[in-house]
Design a protein that fits this description.
about 220 residues; alpha/beta; Rossmann fold; Jelly Rolls; 2 domains; ten-stranded mixed sheet; four-stranded antiparallel sheet; globular
Length: about 220
């Protein structure tokens, strides 16, 4: 499936970033403001550079890409504006890099973008240096054995209210049709056990945080 790859101005280890990003011909690459600096550092060319350019270190924007300058005073963050650009071009699968670290308020804003994507019928994944984040609502997600390596950490949090009918199987600690409350982090620090794992929620949303394992990219 074609995907939209967005790099923001958050914290990124460029060596890890280079190993993570796989760009196919049909993919759309967007640099959200200072994310353009990361594109340059890893030798990739975005299709679009977008933002108010307040975090951009590069002085000159020159290349075979479209530049969309946004006003400094606006409702959308640069990351959200980039997401809207991808949605308008028909993309439903999003990978967000440079979305964590740096300013804490921007980190929260980028996590909220996962909900925005979900509400638009799209799927978003935040890929950080040490963690992968995704959001599910009223559904289930399956992790197969090549991903669910024994000892790999996974945490699950209620998001936007209590999550009802939550089940976790194929993990070290199991849940069976319980309510995960927003104020009680019962789903923190679980582990895969090397088997196919499944997380399901009947009513509500779950923010899923998975430990990044770099041997996958070696």
């Amino acid at each position: 499936m074609k995907k939209c790859i967005i790099i923001g101005a958050g914290t990124c280890d460029t060596q890890k970033l280079l190993k993570q990003i796989i760009v196919q011909k049909e993919d759309l690459c967007i640099a959200a403001d200072g994310g353009f600096d990361y594109f340059q550092q890893i030798g990739l060319m975005p299709n679009i550079v977008l933002g108010d350019m307040d975090s951009l270190k590069t002085q000159t924007l020159c290349g075979p890409f479209q530049v969309k300058r946004l006003p400094a005073e606006k409702d959308d963050t640069d990351m959200l504006a980039a997401i809207k650009e991808g949605l308008a071009m028909g993309y439903k699968q999003f990978e967000l890099y440079g979305a964590l670290g740096g300013r804490l308020d921007h980190t929260f804003a980028n996590i909220q973008c996962l909900l925005y994507l979900l509400n638009q019928g799209a799927k978003g994944t935040i890929v950080g240096d040490d963690v992968i984040l995704t959001l599910i609502k009223d559904t289930k997600i399956t992790f197969y054995t090549d991903f669910a390596k024994k000892g790999r950490k996974i945490s699950v949090f209620a998001f936007g209210g209590d999550a009802h009918g939550v089940s976790e199987s194929g993990l070290k600690y199991l849940l069976n049709h319980v309510t995960v409350r927003q104020e009680f982090p019962i789903g923190v620090s679980n582990e895969f056990i090397g088997e196919t794992a499944e997380i399901a929620v009947q009513c509500g949303m779950l923010l899923i945080c998975i430990e990044q394992q770099w041997e996958e990219f070696m």
